[in-house]
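Hi support team,

I submitted a single chain yesterday and got back a structure, but I'm not sure I'm reading the token output correctly. Could someone confirm the output below corresponds to the sequence I sent? I've pasted both exactly as they appear in my results page.

Thanks,
R.
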Amino acid sequence: MKKILPLLLFISLLINSCTKSELAASWATPLPAQGDGDAYLHATKTAGVELMHATESPQPTEDARPLPKDWQTWPVVPEVTETAREIYKRGLALGNNPKTFSKVGDCQNLHNYFLGRFDHLDIYRFSWKIDDYLDTIENFKGSFDTDGQSAKFGFTAASPLSPLMADPEVCLPDEAPLECELRLTRPSFVLISLEFPFNGRSAGLYEQYLRQIIEYTISQGSVPILATKADNVEKDNSINLTIAKLAYEYNLPMWNWWAAAQPLGNHGIDPYRDGFHITQQAWEERSKTFLMALDHLLKGLKEIN
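Hi R., thanks for writing in. Yes, this is the structure output for that exact sequence:
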């Protein structure tokens, strides 16, 4: 059985670089039932070229989309792209759950601080008008107060691709966290929000990992929602530029969390910590603005259901 990143390759890539993932899914045949783990995993790794071509929508003669270099001015809440429509439609045909989303991320995506309260409206109150989003909260009930298999404390961009990081009690042998989560959850959307706060890691290496995550998510018929980050630990904003470049290249929605954090005190970054962790105020805004993005995308795709 193939791995997303074989053990030796993964260890090497943490130090140097990585090759493009060979993971993909067959878009010509239905997936086996989830209970048949080996058959399901085999079917989702056999081909993916068809989907990548199927989701490439023709561009107009003059592309009016904002350019990646202008990512700081991109809206916080993204529009529904044609590629997202095609992925979502194909995912429904494959049996994905339109009432579920997953997360691929690090500590800034854990339910204790991010989104979890939306599953407990009976005990939490909000200082902003949440009524406009109740339908979306009801639609995704159960997804907010959970982390799943591909969002964990300490995850880097490489972690979701490594079987070493998977929970052996839940995941199949040789299955990486990303594979495991999408097999178990079959989500319609996947938030991809990964920081890169370690010295010596380049934006180029981040791009290689993120590209693999994006392509595997697309191959499973789940719409990737890319997220910028509030910090600039790399000092040149190269990670956010990379995220915008891939959102532009694949024509995917990008939730511009960086832009949402800018009006906050210290731009949402905790001044007493390491330049990476965010403030309590920022946690509130992070949950709110992602809900707004999810709501907008769901309503834009609902006619496909």
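A quick pointer for reading it: The chain has a mean pLDDT of 82. Let us know if anything else looks off.

Best,
Support desk
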